[in-house]
């Protein structure tokens, strides 16, 4: 392929989820390089290869139609893949100084068959984000009908997501609201 027909995924979305979702979200007709070829080699300015950046990703993921494809990709991940995705997203948000509002609206929280945004999840009366405070009562919460997040907010890999959630009014600020 000519370098004009290739795109580099600086976001790493194609590796964290899959190349198919990358093509849907990016709307590119250009191809990703073969996995055997190091991005380091292809990142040379003289090659003039287009780069898919975090700014482009955030712009494209504002499209509600793309949320459907994005949600399907998240639904198909196993627990390990989902945790890797959350770690990647947390780092993408932090390293690229993305807008908090964008992350709050992005559908990333799995609740049964549904994929919710952070904003939606913190407003639900029957959904609880796991933390060290909930460890001892998780069974009780589930018996009472609460759905628990698949990950703990105390996990270091989602520390920036946690900061955003703690800045919002929710059960995370007050034990009395939940109990």
Describe this structure in words.
- The chain is α/β, with parallel strands linked by helices.
- 46% of the residues lie in helices and 14% in strands.
- It is built from 11 helices and 6 strands.
- The longest helix is centred in the middle third of the chain and has 17 residues, at 79-95.
Envelope shape: elongated
- Number of beta strands: 6
Q: State the end-to-end CA separation.
A: 60 Å
What kind of sheet is the major sheet? 2 strands, parallel
User: Uncertain regions: pLDDT < 50 for 5+ in a row?
Assistant: none
What does the average pLDDT come to?
Answer: 91
Question: Which SSEs are present, and which pair or pack?
Answer:
Layout: E1 7-9, H1 13-16, H2 19-26, H3 39-42, E2 50-52, H4 54-60, H5 64-75, H6 79-95, H7 100-105, E3 107-111, E4 114-117, H8 118-123, E5 127-130, H9 138-143, E6 147-152, H10 159-166, H11 175-178
Parallel strand pairs: 1-2, 5-6
Antiparallel strand pairs: 3-4
Keywords:
two-stranded parallel ribbon, 179 residues, 11 helices, alpha/beta
Question: What is this structure, in a nutshell?
Answer:
With 179 residues, the chain is of the alpha/beta class. It is built from eleven helices and six strands.
